Amino acid sequence: MNASEDSLAPEVRSILDAARERPGGDERVAVAARSFPDAVAEAEAEGRVPVVAEVKPTSPTTAGERTDDPVELAREMVAGGATALSVLTEPEHFGGSTENLRRIREAVDVPVLRKDFLVTESQLDAVAADLVLVIARFVGDDLSDLVSAARERGFQPLVEVHDRAELERALDAGAEIIGVNNRDLAKLEVDLETFESVAPHVPDDVTLLAESGVTTTADARRMRAAGADALLIGTAIMDGDARANTERFTQATAETETSE
C-alpha cells in the first residue's frame, strides 16, 4: 500500500482491495458508444438540467437497499428526463453487476456509464457501456494508459478527480469528460466547495460533471452556477420515487424556486 492509499478511508481501501481481485473479461470488447456530450447538449437545448441518474442498489455511505428491478428503475429515471444513467457494477459493496448494466443498456436509449473501480485494462472487457469511470486516485501512474485503453475499445472515459493535482493529471492524460467528486475518499466527507474550487481550472472544451453531494434542487443550481455541465446524482434519486426525483432535478433551473 502506498502513502496515497494509506490515507484512504477504510471503507474505500476495502473497495480498492476487492477491485484488485476481480478478473477482467474473456474477450476484448468493442463499443459503439452513444455520445454523452451530444446528450448533454440535447438536454440543454430542451431546457433540462443534464442529470446522470445512478442505479445504485446500496453503498457503504447509505442505509438500506433497493430491491426493485434495476431495469424498471432505469426506465423510470429516463422517463423523468435523465440525460444518462450511471450503473454500479461493483458487487461486494454496492450490490451491482455487469448483468444489470447489460440489461439496462438494452432497455434504454440514453448513454450508460459503467461505474466501478477499475484498476487494470482487462477489467474494461467485462461489459460494454457508453462511458466508463476511471478514478485518478485509484489508478495512479496508469491513468494515461487506462484512458487510452478505454478509448481504443470505443468507451468514453469519465475521469474522476478530487483536487487540482488530479485535474492536471487527467488533462495530461487527454481526458475530455471529467467528474469532480465532492466526496473526500480519505474521510468520506462531502463538501460542495470541492467542485467550486476545481471547476474554474477546467478548460471550456471539457464536459464537466459534479459528483456526490447533490441532495436538493438548491445544490443542483449551485453546482450548475459553478460550471457543471451535468450532475451525477445517486442517493437523492434512488431514495424514493425514482421518476419524480429525477424530474425534480432535471427541472432545477436557476430560475426555478422549487420547494425542498
From TrEMBL:
Under which pathway is this protein filed? Amino-acid biosynthesis; L-tryptophan biosynthesis; L-tryptophan from chorismate: step 4/5
Keyword Hydrolase on this protein? no
Annotated Basic and acidic residues bias? 18-27
Catalytic reaction equation(s): 1-(2-carboxyphenylamino)-1-deoxy-D-ribulose 5-phosphate + H(+) = (1S,2R)-1-C-(indol-3-yl)glycerol 3-phosphate + CO2 + H2O
Q: Give all residue intervals belonging to the Indole-3-glycerol phosphate synthase domain.
A: 9-247
InterPro entries reported in the protein's UniProt record: Aldolase_TIM, Indglycph_syn_Halo_TrpC, Indole-3-glycerol_P_synth, Indole-3-glycerol_P_synth_dom, Indole-3-GlycerolPSynthase_CS, RibuloseP-bd_barrel
Which residues lie within the region annotated Disordered?
A: 1-27
Q: Name one GO molecular function term.
A: phosphoribosylanthranilate isomerase activity
Q: Does the keyword Heme apply?
A: no
Gene Ontology biological process: L-tryptophan biosynthetic process
Kindly state which keywords UniProt assigns to this record, in alphabetical order: Amino-acid biosynthesis, Aromatic amino acid biosynthesis, Decarboxylase, Lyase, Tryptophan biosynthesis
Q: What is its EC number?
A: 4.1.1.48
What Pfam families does the annotation carry? IGPS
NCBIfam families registered for this protein in UniProt: Indglycph_syn_Halo_TrpC
Q: Which PANTHER family match?
A: INDOLE-3-GLYCEROL-PHOSPHATE SYNTHASE, TRYPTOPHAN BIOSYNTHESIS PROTEIN
Q: What is this protein called?
A: Indole-3-glycerol phosphate synthase
Q: What is this protein's gene name?
A: trpC
